[in-house]
Amino acid sequence: MALTQISSNKCFGGLQKVFEHDSVELNCKMKFAVYLPPKAESEKCPALYCLSGLTCTEQNFISKSGYHQATSEHGLVVIAPDTSPCGYNSKGEDESWDFGTGAGFYVDTTEDPWKTNYRMYSYVMEELPQLINANFPVDPQRMSIFGHSMGDHGALICALKNPGKYKSVSAFAPICNPVLSPWGKKAFSGYLGTDQSKWKAYDATRLVKSYPGSQLDILIDQGKYDQFLLDGQLLPDNFIAACTEKKIPIVFRLQEGYDHSYYFIATFITDHIRHHAEYLNA
Question: CA-CA 20 to 30 A from 89: which of 99, 184, 239, 242?
Answer without folding.
Answer: 184
